[in-house]
Amino acid sequence: MARRRQLYEGKAKILFEGPEPGTLVQYFKDDATAFNAQKKGTITGKGVLNNRISEFLMTKLAEINVPTHFIRRLNMREQLIKEVEIIPIEVVVRNIAAGSIAQRLGIPEGTRLPRSIVEYYYKNDQLGDPMVAEEHITAFGWANPPDMDDIVHLTLRINDFLTGLFLGVGITLVDFKLEFGRLFENDEMRIVLADEISPDNCRLWDSKTNEKMDKDRFRRDLGKIEEAYQEVARRLGILPEAGSRDMKGPETMQ
Question: What is the DSSP string of 37-85?
């Protein structure tokens, strides 16, 4: 495997220098974290499954003209992406009360919200990714008002589309997290969807039983974590060709 220079390592992925200017290679790890990395573990095969699931969903979103950083999948654990300037905001869409909103507002988990709610969190692990308002985002220059208009418009389109897609395979999209970046091409800038979409950053429940099919199984020690991720991939029709077996990562060049 070709030697690549590592540029960044996060909790779930590693970014390497891409083969062409303006590209990166995104490698999916099996590492799992929760509660701002206070809880750590490994979910065997998670990186393989998330690579395939994210590829599938990003491709489907591109088909409805949602711009993304995704170019193509390279192998079981890697995909080629466009290099973007990440906006330091996590955009969370909530359709059903679960997780922190249920705790903060005393809403029973599983309550369908009156409408989809969009929340923003400042990406800063040291601060615990605090919740912020659009006023904070524009005041501190993390994104300007036109950027936010694009982000909200894209977020709501993505929510509508994914809600229907998952419902079609018997899965309820409870909530999910998105990240966006600025893509600079031909002296122009546009906002594009970045990062990944997978059971790592979506709450997915079985539509009939409400059984959790996402990283909450790791957060809450519910067991059968690998099986839940595999079931999401199976329902989407994209289980990896060789299953979720492990694969060595690329060699890193210091």
Answer: TTEEEE-TTHHHHHHHHHHHHHHHHHHTT--BSEEEE-SSSEEEEE--E
